[in-house]
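Reviewers asked in the last cycle whether our approach scales beyond single polypeptides. To address this, we selected a multi-component target totalling 473 residues and predicted its structure end to end. The input consisted of the following lines:
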Amino acid sequence: MTSANPAIIFQNVCKKFENSRTNAVDHVDVTIQEGEFITILGSSGCGKTTLLKMVNRLYEPDEGKILLFGEDISTVDAVKVRRRIGYVIQQVGLFPHMTIGENVAVVPKLLKWKKEKIDARVKELLTLVGLEPEEYENRYPSQLSGGQQQRVGLARALAIDPKIMLLDEPFGAIDAINRLNLQDELLRIHGGLGKTFLFVTHDIHEAFKMGDRVIIMNEGEICQFDTPRHIAAHPANDFVEMLIRSAREQEQIFFDACQ
Amino acid sequence: MLQLTMAYFQNNMESFLLAVRQHMWISLLSLLAACVIGIPCGYAATRYARGEKWITGFFQILRIIPSLAVLILLIPIMGTGIKPAMTALVLLAVPPILMNTVVGLKEVPDFMLETARGIGMTERQVLWKVKFPLALPMIFTGVKTAMVEIIASATLAAKIGAGGLGGLIFTGLGLNRTDLLLIGGISVAVLSLTAALLLDVLSGLIMRYKKAEK
Ligand SMILES: Nc1ncnc2c1ncn2[C@@H]1O[C@H](COP(=O)(O)OP(=O)(O)OP(=O)(O)O)[C@@H](O)[C@H]1O
Ligand SMILES: [Mg+2]
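The resulting structure, written as structure tokens, was:
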């Protein structure tokens, strides 16, 4: 599944915000292969979003550099970088003044695709994320449930078939059952498209289920970057161990309740 | 009373319609000019932090001066007629449009702009496709306020010979004729309501998503 072709390389990347004394992202050195599904796991405020936003140049690193397919992104026009990357933001961020169809069509329109091509693509994508185009295309975001909106956010990010997808807690506001469904759908989409996914979550179950490999972050640093199996078997430090223990305890509670 | 009114319309229909037309034209042109000045200035104010205090402050002061005073102050500079009248109206209408533009643009949430950039819009595209459309409801409210103020104040324009429905009212005052006063006053009110209604319809057409939110 993974070719030996690095899609994203973080080289000693640091990011410090002005009014903060510590690094929000601290000396991150990571290589991600093309086609991998990487999940980034960590508690609130540990720097997951910051790390992600440096990949599409919404933030610039203070130190180090980021390479996409071997190219240092700081040397490429930010708009160009972003148009090669699909981006699903934490707050969903559909444009309220555009219909669902228009939201999905935003980037293809920026790139001046032909109208027929855009229409076909919108229908294809809405179907892909499990929304009936006839039913939803002409609605406004306010007329959709939170979960449906997140599906549209995903469709919009996929619109121009980017090789890299950044997903910042895309299922944040979704109930457990729909979340499981969406997780499966996302894995299906990933499997079919051969794209590299960077998926942020603070849910350990989600991270371990979805990720080929998992990045575990704490206070801006990467504690461990490995396959779920390896992490569970050999936690790299106390923090990772605590994380896994807490997940086990939660399962135990549920297990006991079922007895 | 009714008879007087009927008689007025029988004898003066043409001059009445002329007054209505003049009133409408003065108001519309002033409103357009105020938009052309107010919206770009509002944008500039949000764009250049130092400019904001300066620009908004200037127009806030203008707002305090009563239109009548502005009119009278303008006479020595511009004489009488339609030019000083419209200048006064524009000065009156710019503040609400400008202030609402500033507020509307500032209220667009940061994450919305970041999303727009994140999916690959240039700064110009962010402005035209996201920032302005999202500020538009607020700008529209400002335009509506301005318009109501203009239509009411255009009545004063007659005082310096710009014509309009104010002429009727001032004649009524001078001759102590209640019928003329009423006809003038009610016509201004009807004009104002109609214009507000038209703007509502227009904003409903432009911002259909707002209806969906209800
Ligand atoms: N624009 C900013 N300016 C200043 N500080 C920031 C900014 N964005 C984030 N931070 C700080 O950087 C740290 C990391 O934030 P980040 O948003 O990356 O966390 P996160 O892991 O995504 O958290 P969450 O799970 O809550 O989304 C936090 O301490 C946060 O307060
Ligand atoms: Mg975050």
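Residues A 17, 20, 24, 42, 44-50, 90, 202 surround adenosine-5'-triphosphate (ligand 1) (CB under 6 Å). We regard this as preliminary and will revisit it once experimental data from Aim 1 are available.
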